[in-house]
Amino acid sequence: MSRTITIDPLTRIEGHARITLHLGPDGQVSDALFHVTQFRGFEKFVEGRPFHEMPSIMARICGICPVSHLVASAKACDELLAVRIPHTAIQLRRLMNIGQIVQSHALNFFHLSSPDLLLGFDSDPATRNIFGVLAKRPDLARDGIRLRQFGQQVIEWLGKERIHPAWIVAGGVSSPLTAAVRDRILAAIPEARQIAHRTMDWFKRSLENYREETRTFGNFPSLFLGLVGPDGELEHYDGRLRFVDATGEKVADGIENADYASVIGEAVEPWSYLKFPYYKPTGYPEGMYRVGPLARLNVCDRIGTPEADAELAEFRELGRGAVLSSFHYHFARLVEVIYGIEMIEQILNDPEILSTHVRAEAGPNARRGIGISEAPRGLLIHDYTIDEQGLMRGANLIIATGHNNLAMSRGILQVARRYVDGNNLKEGMLNRVEAVIRAFDPCLSCSTHAAGKMPMRIELFDADGRKVNEVMRQP
Amino acid sequence: MSDVLVIGYGNALRCDDGLGPEAAERLAASLGPGTARVQACHQLTPELAEPISRADFVLFLDAACDGEPGTLRVQAVLPADAPAGATIHAMEPSELLNWTRALFGRSPEAWLLTIAGADFGVGCQLSPPVRDALPSLLAEARALIRSATDRATRKTG
Questions:
Q1: According to the model, what pLDDT value does residue A129 have?
Q2: Residues A183-202: pLDDT tens digits?
Q3: Cis before residue A221, ω within 30 degrees of 0?
Q4: Domain annotation for chain A: domains and CATH numbers
Q5: What is the pLDDT of residues B43-101, one digit of tens each?
Q6: Helix (H) and strand (E) counts in chain B
Q7: Given A126, A135, A145, which is nearest B49 (Cβ)?
Q8: DSSP A208
Q9: Confidence of residue A451 (pLDDT cuts 50, 70, 90)
Q10: Can you tell me the ipTM of this complex?
Q11: What is the spatial distance between Cα A59 and Cα A285, in angstroms, rounded to a whole number?
């Protein structure tokens, strides 16, 4: 008799989803599905709006990474204007984008994932949360708060708003950087740097405790996708697409924005609102790939800043070829935090950073614009088509969480097969299934074009569709 | 001089829920320079524990979803544990003070000023009873700040 286990909804992720585990006659997991149960519809309702409204509208897709949508949207609009963006504007956009990556990575690591890492995957779910971390390690919780605050302040000081700044616009940014703001950010860097390194040291010492999770949390061969700069360095704002395989070999490189559709296909399934992007030359679903911090460190030749490059060298020792375990998203995230702090300092010391030439003005000069950047969770594509009046005729958004959709399902299946016994369900088993998803840091608000949490529900169905058991858990 | 922090919070796109940010902005405009640090935000988040830890006196401004619409309520806030099922997506002032004490070793005197709302639907306008009660909230906030500042001056003087 086959049965089904449903985890609904998932907790400590951004958005709503549920997991269905199908059990075989022996009570062991035979298949896993990751269902995204919310729908946003931004691609449709922007039709008919003036294109220059897109950055502000698209930023509303998400309250965690609005800056990523601002950046990708503004870049798509830049192409519609067909103008050259001032150097200082590019640097300022980079600055805000990195500020967001730092705050988002801090949110994932400290607020969402550290309860599992610090308190244990099998610890009491009533205290396995940020409040439990606060009680056991207030210093760690304080570091998390300060680091996230640093990233948020970079955004707020630049854009005057912490969550939905309208500062990045088509053609550049709306106002230049002042010396006072530059100096405030520079003054905050030493503490952020200390926290980043302290956290990395703690995490690396803790890795030994998670040997089993490292082995089984989404540890499988796949392709990896990310942007790289002209010299193969880590890149979050611009650059070209690169795919590498599980051995670390490049399978596609130097792909320009306009050609993304030649390598990325999109499939849909009737049981989820999240699309299933895949590597086109390999086909669906075999063309599974991963994006985000793990992928970015796998595709780049080097990072380009000294402290992060030293960490990359250690990261590379975790695998032969590409690093395959999704558990190491956490490691990669911390490397990117170190990189982000170094880059913020570099950008602020650019001699032209206070230039007042920060925006190029023009009307629509092209009918199609594609903006691609790296969001905290991975590659972000905004592809717009307009009419001759500059009104939106079409939008296609491919979001980081979507790119990871096939890989997340694969990761769930692997963890579920290792930990879930359908004949003897325990909460810790299900927490590990959730934790593998959390490692990917999915943002479902973005990818389905709502943040929230509800109790987790696990349901068991027999082969005839009859519910034979149900477990409820309050978050 | 007392270090005063004012935090007005709420969703400015949900009618009366936007009271907190609106009140914070109006208060900031009416206070003399250097009187208080005033912040308007969407919701209370853990990061606010740090600026709170640096303050001697904190005012929280919010809309209440219970009570007769337009009713002003002023209440002292003390640190308290988060209730079961709490989330960092929706913190209460008392939880935030608890975080502040746990993380930074101190928790300042704090007050919560609320007006009971009538309409929390989609929109940018305050409802008439809330709009009418707003001047009273601002007057009460200014009186509390003045009182805190006077007490601090007497202490240092």
A1: 76
A2: 999 999 999 999 999 999 99
A3: no
A4: 3-40+408-473 (no CATH), 42-403 (1.10.645.10)
A5: 898 889 999 999 999 999 999 999 999 999 999 999 987 665 555 566 899 999 998 99
A6: 4, 5
A7: A145
A8: G
A9: very low
A10: 0.74
A11: 30
Q: Which of A42, A109, A159 is nearest to A438 (CA)?
A: A109
CATH number of residue B146's parent domain: 3.40.50.1450
- Which residue segment(s) compose the domain that B91 sits in? 4-156
Closest CA–CA distance from residue B151 to any residue of chain A (Å): 31
Distance CA B106, CA B122 (A): 38
CB < 8 Å to A454, chain B: none
In sequence order, what are the beta bridge partners of A166? Answer: none
Rounded to an integer, the average pLDDT of A384-406 is 91
Q: How far is CA B57 from the centre of its chain?
A: 11
As a whole number of angstroms, the distance between CA A254 and CA A270 comes to 34
In Å, how far is A127's CA from the nearest CA of chain B? 10
| CB under 8 A, 24+ apart: contacts of A226-231 | A226/A291, A226/A295, A226/A296, A226/A298, A226/A299, A226/A300, A226/A374, A226/A378, A226/A379, A227/A296, A227/A372, A227/A373, A227/A374, A227/A379, A228/A253, A228/A299, A228/A300, A228/A301, A229/A304, A231/A301, A231/A302, A231/A304
Q: Which of A113, A103, A65 has the alpha carbon at shortest distance from A326?
A: A113
Length of chain A in residues, anyone? 475
**Range with the poorest average pLDDT among A54-58, B7-11, B153-157:** B153-157
CB pair distance less than 8 Å for A452 and B89: yes
Nearest to A444 by CA among A15, A43, A59, A8: A15
B103 interaction partners in chain A (CB closer than 8 Å): 134, 138, 141-142, 145
Q: Per the structure, how many domains does chain B have?
A: 1
Q: Is B58 within 8 Å of B108 (Cβ atoms)?
A: yes
Interface of B with A (CB under 8 A): 41-42, 46-47, 49-50, 82, 84-89, 99, 102-104
Spatial CA neighbour of A380 closest among A11, A101, A161, A16: A101
What's chain B's Rg over C-alpha atoms?
15
Instruction: Give the residue-averaged pLDDT of B108-121.
Output: 97
CA-nearest residue of chain A to B84? Answer: A126
